[in-house]
Amino acid sequence: MSHTPVETQHNDRLANENGILLQVENIKKYFTVKGEKIFHKHSLVHALDGVSFYVNKGETFGLVGESGSGKTTAGRVILRLIEPTSGDIYFENKHLLSLTRKEMKNVRRQMQMVFQDPYASLNPRMAIGDIIAEPLEIHGVGNRQERKEIVESFLEVVGLQSSFIKRYPHEFSGGQRQRVGIARALVLQPKLIICDEPVSALDISVQSQILNLLKELQEKFSLTYIFIAHGLDVIRYISDRVGVMYLGKIVEIAPTENLFSSPCHPYTESLLSAIPIPNPLKRKKRIILQGDIPSPINPPPGCRFHTRCRYAQKICREVEPEKQVLGQGEVWCHFPLA
Ligand code: SF4
Fold first, then answer.
1. pTM for the whole structure
2. How far apart are CA 312 and CA 330, in angstroms?
3. Distance 323 CA to ligand 1 centre (A)
């Protein structure tokens, strides 16, 4: 069966002039969890429940949400590190879920990941030169000497000395290790890098250095990023557009400044209300969400946010909101704020 991406009117209108690199259509990912006792039924965790978005070539698309919202699962499903339960993913118009393992290996050269924890994501028994060279070996790039030269050049690209090639991860600081992780992701010269909370394990002072490095590299190598984070300040600094996730769904997508200046979804509004304002003379009313985040095993009917939403009405508890296009953004709410 041949697949072609769904060219929606919305995508035609909002895609930048470079075009769309990645399109995710109605992705679902359910995990089965065993019951606690032998005769208990297995349950389904709705980690992703109908997630759709697209990413333009050369942009940074931020995915933000509380832990458990599904943003990391979304990143892994796009790379097919885990298989989705259903849905479609198109990368450069190729339907990824129809590709054979060999075809997917070729596409994966173009899609790399930078992981959250630079301590856990680097093998402590490998020299950093071997860590960075590993993707080159897997994809059969160059001979040993050529790979060494490529690795040395990428060490310098990420701000490390090429003479570090024989050193081990424990000899580096957290920020330096994350630079090694970035070099490993870059070495195949991919088009898309999924950055999964790449600065959240780092000190604040180091965070900005890594964010600036990512921005420089984006310019230099014409990279496209999906940037996953729970920190709104980080997302605001790095992203061109932002998708807000709640309990396995995207609830709002908008250009960054629009989202931060006039959020349309009540959940986005509550997240933004928690950002401190630097001016002590200005006061902002923080919106405290009622109740706990519901279980993804048994998500609420209707709008998933209704159990915590201060604007919820009867329809919210019964009918799942459809997407509404507002200006340059999209929002899934019966009563959007703007
Ligand atoms: Fe709140 Fe209703 Fe909008 Fe959901 S649909 S966010 S419950 S107003």
1. 0.91
2. 19
3. 12
